[in-house]
Fold this protein.
Amino acid sequence: MTTFSNSDYNSDNYRKFRPNYQQDLYQLVYKQHTENGANFDVALDVGTGTGQVAESLAARFQKVYGIDSSSTMLDSAIKGNNIIYSVGSAEDLSQFGSQSIDLISVAEAFHWFNHSKFFDEVQRVLKPQGTLVIIGYSFLLLEGQQEATEKTKKLELELTPFFEKGHEHLRSLYRDIHIPMHNVQRLYYPRYGSEPFMRESFTVSHLRSYFKTSSAYKTYCAKFPLANDIVDTSINEMLKEGQLPENQLFDVTWESVIILGHMR
Ligand SMILES: C[S@@+](CC[C@H](N)C(=O)[O-])C[C@H]1O[C@@H](n2cnc3c(N)ncnc32)[C@H](O)[C@@H]1O
């Protein structure tokens, strides 16, 4: 169980302040899925959280299942006529039949899973032409603002010890994890191509709220209830030093990866 399962985790803020994934990312995934001869009947988003990916998949698939081990996160999930959410773990997909799913997605959750159990289940439930897509994002990049990017990275590194075990895989963008599928592709931003998989326009207030959705921030606050707010302190410093535009939107992207794997 992660911090996201705590009943006092603010899942509404997660939905509001976490980024969405660019449509280009989905187009890339669908292109490969089609080339592999797969269908668009049923998709399963594992660790769906508040359903950002499930919502996008629902525009293309007949039916989308979103499962998460946290009912708190699912309480704030984006609704859709063809989306069915349920509490469930990545390691036990027994609510789904063998060879019943065309595409399985995981976004920003894979690092928390027991990988061998998850992959056993993926091999069982995916249809023979099926696709697995894993998305992960790590450090924030403030476009064209080197100093501010370094400062936010410093803040993220300060929070790092307060993540649960598993987070270290995300920091390496899953380079350390073997993916037992066929034709595995790993696409990294910023190294791969020029277009980010994720891009948002943030205000300073959104940036604060984004950092405060982190499970590590929540653990930090519980551990040091009397300390100055670690996020506000860092952002106020950046404002004071003129590294952030106070009343203006600015573009942010993320160091990120898409991993694609197929059944054959
Ligand atoms: C950072 S959130 C990602 C949510 C969403 N997929 C996104 O892209 O924003 C990670 C989610 O994974 C869920 N999670 C963690 N371990 C899990 C597991 N073993 N099985 C299912 N869900 C899990 C958490 O409850 C949380 O909702």
Summary: The longest strand covers residues 126-142. The first helix runs from residue 11 to 17. Residues 2, 4-5, 18, 46-49, 52-53, 68-70, 73, 89-91, 107-109, 112-113 surround S-adenosylmethionine (CB under 6 Å). The chain has a mean pLDDT of 95.
